[in-house]
């Protein structure tokens, strides 16, 4: 009889962690290649097309950076939540709620305020909107023991329906000529772009600053220590007197708030009005989960992994045209990468041994 024994690994080196990530990505690429073969596509050519479409031209690079902005913001926030073992699957809804708050602020006060006031104001409103939507599952988990995976996931759909109700109802703008959507934001509330691109540089700078600041918070502050303890050893946290409710509320306010900032960037930097949920976010909240995981829950690494996965999104659009593949191809690629990254993380932290017995 063969028995499988699992034991925890300790003192995991940086090199081992890095190599595990590399091997996980390589294994994922092998599986993705098999999927392409089944679809009747040359996998080498398909993968080449993905990365050449995103990094092989100036246009592709600019589009990749544009899509990397929300992924970096959301992924950075998720690194904090995941470190505390709070599985926030609701960043998509938090992004949309940030977009809602920012749109209301811009439409209400934008005409009366200059850009140097209204722009920080809409970012603040977006952060508050996403943060408030983020603390709801924290309260449900700590006070009522409701699983945060379920609550955060369900809140995504609730927020999407709230947004849809607004744009087809009370917020429906006359400028849309009968189509769902709000009026355009006033010029003072629209974010500036790098010439010749769709890169809203204010949000890009903010994303990088947030990654740096959150890295300091996680590794250099008492709150960061408490968040790590809550995730790694809840019993020790309770013994040390850590307030679980307070810690969870703060970390989810930050995580949700950063997703809300991504919503501000999409509305004020790209679309300039609030439209259907699918037009505001291309699934950024879900893709950012993989961004955080590939970054090993390090906010600074989330900048690099955010750019990497933005490249996959842009390259995925390219192969839809060049290879005639369906839009779901990108979802398959992202899902496969996430599965193998999770598997790699498991084997990094656990040692598997086979025990043979004659019984």
Summarize the structure in words.
- The protein is mainly alpha-helical.
- The protein has helices spanning 14-38, 43-55, 58-83, 91-109, 115-144, 148-168, 201-220, 222-232, 234-239, 244-271, 277-280, 284-294, 299-322, 328-349; strands at residues 2-8, 350-356.
- Helix 3 crosses helix 8, helix 3 packs antiparallel against helix 10 (244-271) and helix 5 (115-144) crosses helix 6.
- The chain is globular and about 80 Å long.
- 45% of the residues are buried.
- The model has no long low-confidence stretch (mean pLDDT 91).
Short description:
The protein is mainly α and 359 residues long. Helices cover 72% and strands 4% of the residues.
State the strand order across the main sheet.
Answer: 1-2
Low-confidence stretches: none
Write down the overall mean pLDDT: 91
* Helical proportion, percent range: over 70%
Total beta strand runs: 2
SSE order in H/E notation? EHHHHHHHHHHHHHHE
Outline the biggest β-sheet: 2 strands, antiparallel
Give the oligomeric state: single chain
- The structure class reads mainly alpha
End-to-end separation in angstroms reads 6 Å
Count of runs of 4 or more consecutive helical residues: 14
Radius of gyration: 22 Å
Shape verdict: globular
């Amino acid at each position: 009889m063969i028995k499988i024994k699992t034991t925890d690994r300790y003192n995991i080196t940086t090199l081992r962690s890095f190599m595990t990530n590399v091997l996980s990505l390589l294994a994922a690429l092998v599986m993705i290649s098999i999927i392409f073969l089944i679809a009747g596509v040359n996998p080498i050519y398909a993968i080449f097309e993905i990365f050449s479409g995103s990094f092989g031209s100036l246009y592709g690079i600019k589009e990749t950076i544009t899509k990397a902005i929300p992924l970096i913001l959301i992924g950075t926030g998720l690194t904090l939540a995941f470190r505390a073992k709070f599985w926030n699957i609701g960043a998509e809804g938090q992004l949309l709620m940030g977009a809602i708050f920012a749109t209301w602020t811009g439409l209400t006060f934008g005409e009366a305020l200059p850009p140097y006031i209204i722009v920080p104001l809409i970012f603040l409103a977006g952060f508050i909107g996403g943060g408030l939507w983020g603390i709801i599952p924290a309260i449900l988990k700590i006070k009522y023991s409701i699983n945060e995976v379920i609550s955060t996931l369900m809140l995504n759909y609730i927020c999407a329906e709230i947004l849809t109700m607004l744009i087809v109802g009370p917020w429906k703008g006359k400028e849309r000529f009968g189509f769902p959507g709000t009026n355009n934001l006033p010029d003072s509330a629209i974010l500036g772009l790098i010439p010749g691109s769709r890169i809203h540089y204010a949000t890009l700078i903010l994303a990088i600053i947030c990654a740096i600041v959150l890295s300091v918070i996680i590794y250099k502050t008492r709150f960061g220590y408490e968040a790590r303890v809550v995730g790694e050893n809840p019993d020790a946290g309770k013994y040390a007197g850590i307030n679980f409710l307070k810690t969870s509320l703060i970390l989810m306010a930050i995580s949700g708030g950063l997703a809300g900032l991504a919503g501000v960037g999409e509305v004020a930097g790209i679309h300039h009005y609030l439209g259907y949920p699918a037009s505001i976010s291309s699934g950024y909240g879900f893709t950012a989960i993989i961004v955080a995981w590939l970054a090993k829950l390090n906010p600074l690494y989330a900048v690099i992994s955010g750019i990497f996965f933005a490249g996959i999104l842009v390259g995925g659009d390219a192969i839809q045209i060049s290879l005639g593949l369906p839009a779901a191809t990108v979802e398959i690629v992202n899902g496969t990468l996430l599965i193998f990254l999770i598997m790699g993380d498991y084997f990094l932290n656990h040692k598997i041994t086979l025990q043979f017995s004659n019984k």
